[in-house]
């Protein structure tokens, strides 16, 4: 479990006081130390937005 707190002032600074949406994605970099040949991998919460697997609007939260 992880909890993240981002001050509202950050969103106001980036998007203005009337911001409506926030889109986030989370990636964990995984490295298997017991199998050096395997290397590193990335585990995404939602598909990487830079790829063809992107789902438009995924990870979007709307402010009420």
Brief overview:
Helix content is 12%, strand content 25%. The chain is an alpha+beta fold and 64 residues long.
Mean pLDDT: 90
N-to-C SSE series? HEEEE
Q: State the separation between the terminal residues, measured CA to CA.
A: 25 Å
Coarse structural class = alpha+beta
Number of helices: 1
The percent range for helix content is 10-25%
Question: What is the global morphology?
Answer: elongated
Q: Low-confidence runs (pLDDT<50, min 5 residues)?
A: none
Report on the structure:
The protein has one helix and four strands. The chain is an alpha+beta fold. A two-stranded antiparallel sheet has the order 1-4. Strand 2 and strand 3 form a beta hairpin. The two termini are 25 Å apart.
List the SSEs and their pairings:
Layout: H1 8-15, E1 21-23, E2 27-31, E3 40-44, E4 60-62
Antiparallel strand pairs: 1-4, 2-3
Descriptive keywords:
alpha+beta, 25% strand, two-stranded antiparallel sheet, 64 residues, single chain, two-stranded antiparallel ribbon, elongated
């Amino acid at each position: 479990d992880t909890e993240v707190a981002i001050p509202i002032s950050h969103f106001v600074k980036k998007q203005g006081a009337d911001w409506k949406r926030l889109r986030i994605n989370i990636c964990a970099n995984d490295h298997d130390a017991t199998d050096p040949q395997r290397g590193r991998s990335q585990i995404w919460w939602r598909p990487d937005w830079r790829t063809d697997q992107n789902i438009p609007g995924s990870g979007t939260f709307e402010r009420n």
